[in-house]
Model the fold of this input.
Amino acid sequence: MTDLRALLADGLRPGVYRWRSDQTPDQVRREVEAAGWDFVLLDTTEIHDKSGFLDLCATAFDLPRWFGRNWDALADSLSDRSTGEPEIVLWAGLRHLLDHDHDTVDVALQIFTEDITNSGQLRVLILEPKTTKTPHLLSSLPVL
Done:
């Protein structure tokens, strides 16, 4: 397991990463906030489709009320809220959503990657239990 504190202290570069850890989201939140970084939790363990994912994003990222609940609106809203300050997005339960709606996960990863390229703000950590096999869609992502 990579020590999260060390990663944050070293200035984790913007990107989408696979992160094998047994830490709970609350433990991660405390470490991230103690290091002075912003934190967003995307927990898709109860999400089954695009609509649910977009609703979750609206809440988790505190998107404006006019957020249109579509992919273009998500990309625009993430761009609009970019402050340039480093932000850790912990994506827990990705495997559950992937099992129910592969396309939603695929497009979401593309949108996060595009936002990272444009804003340099997000560091998306996909929380993977240490004992699970990596899904093919995630196999090309770097591991922390």
Summary: The chain has a mean pLDDT of 92. Helices lie at 4-9, 25-34, 50-60, 71-81, 94-100, 102-119. The two ends are 8 Å apart (CA to CA).
